[in-house]
Amino acid sequence: MWTVLLALIISTKPCPAPECKGESCRAKADYVALGTITNVVHHPEPAPLLKDFAEFTLVVTKCEKGTCPKEIKYRVGWCTNARTLPADTKGEFIFYGKKSSAEPQYLDFWAPSDFFDTTP
Q1: Quick one: residue 50, left, alpha or beta (phi over 0 = left, psi -120 to 50 = alpha)?
Q2: Burial of 92 (C-beta count, 10 Å sphere; 0-12/13-18/19+)
Q3: What share of the chain is helix, strand, coil (3-state, %, to 5)?
Q4: 12 in any annotated domain
Q5: Does residue 9 sit within a domain?
Q6: DSSP secondary structure, 37-59, as one string
Q7: 116 in any annotated domain
Q8: For residue 1, pLDDT beyond 70
Q9: What is the mean pLDDT of residues 77-102?
Q10: CA-to-CA distance for 28 and 51, rounded, in angstroms?
Q11: Within a domain: 4
Q12: How many structural domains comprise the chain?
């Protein structure tokens, strides 16, 4: 068993380092969308992956840069869209997106409430 796991680890090409993190993604993003996360469908994978390849929809409430559709359907991936959803997806999130001919891509995302007190 250990031989198989070791072979999987060695044969898996590592993902490149993220292009950016947080607000530094604004300059690299084609669009910056503020919105709420809905329609989450979890696809958790057991070891050795241990990752939730969730599918979800971002309902855009404000477009801060570029052109944003009203809804964007994302899927968490291994290297592309690598950041997984937090346990709590309530509230608004900022997504830094890249236009793609394939599936929609995000560089990063975060919840403003993680950094700012949004209590009225």
Answers
A1: left
A2: middle
A3: 15, 35, 50
A4: no
A5: no
A6: EEEEE--EE-TTT-EE--EEEEE
A7: no
A8: no
A9: 91
A10: 26
A11: no
A12: 1
Task: Write out the two tokens for 93.
Answer: 């999130």
Range of the domain at 89: 33-97
The residue type at 101: S
The pLDDT tens digits of the residues spanning 49-86 come to: 899 999 999 999 999 999 999 999 999 999 999 999 99
DSSP assignment of 53-93: --EEEEEEEEEEES---SEEEEE--SSTT-SPPPS---SEE
- What digits encode the pLDDT tens for the residues 14-59? 888 888 888 899 999 999 999 999 999 999 999 888 999 999 999 9
Q: Is the pTM here over 0.70, yes or no?
A: yes
For residues 71 and 57, is the Cβ–Cβ distance under 8 A? yes
